[in-house]
Amino acid sequence: MIFRFFFLKEVKKFPFFFLLLAFTLLLGTMGLMGISIVSSQVQEKLKNNANELLTSDIAVSARRDLFPEEQESLKKIFADIPHREYKIVDVYSMITHLRAKASRLVEIRAVQNGFPFYGKLTLRSGEYHPENLYISKDLADLWQVQADDELQIGDVTLKVTGVVEEDSSLGLRGFSLAPRIYFPLDKLAATGLIKPGATGSFAYHYHLNKFSEPKLQEIKKAIYANIKDSAVKITLPEDSSEQTGRVINTLTNFMALSALIGLILSLVGVFYLYQSHLLARLKDLCLLNLHGLTKGQIITGIIGQFSAIFVIVMIVELFLMVPVYEALAPLLSNNLGIELTPDVNVMGALTDMPFLYGLSLFILVPLLFGLMRTPMGLQLKASKLSMGRFRFWDFLPFILLLWLFSCYLSHSFRTGNLFFGSLMIVFLLSTLVVRFGQWIIKKIIGNKGLLIPTIENGIALRSLTRSGHKLTLSFLSLAMGATLISLILQLDKMILKEFALDNKKPSLFIFDVQEDQMDPLIDMAKANGSPLAYITPMIRARLEKVNDKKYVKKKRAYDFRSKEEDEDARFRSNNLNLTYRDYLTESERIIDGKPFPPGGAPDDRLPYISIEKRWAQRMDLDIGDKLTFDIQGVEFEGTVYNIREVKWTSFYPNFFVTIEPGMIDAAPKTFLAILPSGPKEKKLELQRLSVEKFPNVSFIDVGELVGKLSGLFEKSRQAIEVISWLSLIVGLVILYGLSHDQVYRRYYDLALMKSLGFSATRLRLNLLYEFGALFLSALTLGLFLGWLIAQLIGREVFKLSPSVDWSRLLYPAGLLTVLCLVTILVSSWRAVRAKPRELLSDS
């Protein structure tokens, strides 16, 4: 009976309300549902292909080759387990295409027979054999490699056997430092590239003849028990898929937060629509209460009514999303770098549904509490019906769930708190601006008449001072949409500017230079007219003790962890590269402590140590802490003297830890350097000469690297910008409903003004003055807040200096203003053209 009244009869009687409600919910949830579908498809793909990404059942790896005793431990562990194995060495090096006489950095994957156990390498023609040389499609396209072309790899020259079109182990790389070539491991030693300090990875892969998850975990525990060095890493298939999916997870998390703003805007509209609807139906609800329905039953009926609408909207949305996803699957696969199946797993898209329903329902809680506080019997006797007032704390369930949902979508308490805090700031500032603005207007107009200076202005100002929280909701929805648009546009410009090449960025980043090669390389660079700069030693070390207590790396909890915990676990490694120097690069500045004193460390005190800010936070270190490092079996101690902030996007040789010169100068090391910006010909000639004389020395072309980073950001920016404009569309639809309702409620005023001789044009001017003032102030606040948040993110994440791009503030402001004013004209078109008699009959 209650369902029939609150749903069937209500829908028949108020079809426009329910259609607008459903449309508002549809627009608000569409972005989140779409992102959820894509994310679930990616995760399912990675989970199903976990073994292919790793190429084996378990891998034991390190940034160095395993010591003989460690290899012996592995042999004992696997001695009684039927298995197959192979070794992979990944090392970065310069190679030369002899026909084109061109050199570049590549990732050499040196493999043994049997590679890969899982997955495959798809060639342009022929079959893959590990004893031959193959190159990736990227390198083949770049160099226009032909059959039997020869490559100079260190001291070895080999012919290219084929081109790898697809490597299933790459999965979603997101960003690669260099293209890959595939090389036989038994020939790697002859190249002369494996020298101390070379940038590479050594991995032993195992395939179990009888695979079982418990056995795999048992093997993992046994390896950790026998190999104590934390530099040795054990990787299972699920770990590999997790690493591979990190890039797409970061992108979808930020997209989901952007889409959440669209949902919040739609919920503002849902709140307003239901408030107007319940107020219009209050007399009927009072009569139902008089005939025996309790307030609890009435509220239950309203909740059931809303729940039915929500379920219908979700079903319609899924029917719409599935064909859209199937059509866009090839485009998504191309942009994400992972082959997605066109078949949609709808169950994966339902994971966010409880949060969506909870947020949508909890936004109505204040109205339901207001209805509970309404004296039903007295309302029937009152001259004017009014609902009971709701309180601020009635919104607490919604606010709490919104905070939890923000953290859930971002998988980060830090990002979730930042996002939620920004929303609260926008809400509080919007409320304060509206209240302060109303107070100012009241002071200005005082007891003056309506001619301020024209009657249209006077009526508009009076209406603004008398509007309640409906005005605040309108202001909030506009300000929030403008904030998001401004944030994306400003941050986009700032980051692209940071990634742009200029004279401050180096032309080449040089690494893997051996000690005995450094002086000849410097002389060769000078002779070539391209002198090197910021020549920096790099020493591999391990943090052993902090304040004389053994440093213990924290273990990760795998049941649930935030992005911060995942990130900290990766960086809280006691194995690191460090350097010694007594100066700061242009990309460093001391934020706590003092610079190193001149002259180096004397013998009568411990050497001073400088540590990077974020590394210090993750490792829980501070000024004055005593650190003990191990360098190839030799320990040394030092005291933290200052904390630095590093701008990593400068591409200068920077380190987490810098030691005062004098203590570790004689330690085994390699060198880094940069080639400052200069003529391209000098850069290419230096690479050619270096590869001929020092084949192990590697170069990163900073211009090429910046281009890759810009391309990655461009994909992210475009995706988030689409979500931002979708959020704005949601805001405009809500504004249409709000303005239409405001005009509807003022039919009597409009009829009176028409009777007094107001033309349709003057009525439109009145509405444009009123809502135009509201829109312009909301847009101004929103665009400013978006710019401010972009500056904060740029400062904290990218170490960028404050800047403003006026074109990206003024153009959106003009466009949004036109859209908003057109929305008002459209929503009020019928009312301002109607005759007074029609308006009065409608009301």
End-to-end separation: 31 Å
Q: Ranges with pLDDT <50 over ≥5 residues? A: 555-561
Q: Write down the Rg.
A: 33 Å
- Which range best describes the helical content: under 10%, 10-25%, 25-40%, 40-55%, 55-70% or over 70%? 55-70%
- Multimeric state of these chains? single chain
Please tell me what the overall shape is: elongated
Summing up helix and strand content along with how strands pair, one would put the structural category as alpha+beta
Largest sheet: 6 strands, mixed, barrel
Count of DSSP strands:
21
Q: Any idea how many domains?
A: 4
Strand order of the largest sheet: 2-3-8-5-7-6
Strand content: 15-25%
Number of helices: 29
How confident is the prediction overall: mean pLDDT?
80
Question: What would you say about this model in short?
Answer:
With 843 residues, this protein is of the alpha+beta class. The longest helix is centred in the last third of the chain and has 44 residues, at 702-745.
Structural features, described:
This protein has 843 residues and is α+β, with helices and mostly antiparallel strands. The protein folds into four domains: 1-52 and 247-411, no CATH class; 58-235, no CATH class; 435-502 and 706-843, no CATH class; 532-675, no CATH class. Helix content is 56%, strand content 17%. The chain contains 29 helices and 21 strands. It has a six-stranded mixed beta barrel. Strands 12-14-19-16-18-17 form a six-stranded mixed barrel. It is elongated and about 95 Å long. Residues 555-561 have low confidence and may be disordered. Keywords: Cell membrane, Membrane, Transmembrane, Transmembrane helix. It is found in: Cell membrane. It is a multi-pass membrane protein. Residues 722-836 form the ABC3 transporter permease C-terminal domain. The chain crosses the membrane at residues 254-274, 298-322, 355-372, 392-411, 417-437, 722-738, 767-789, 809-829.
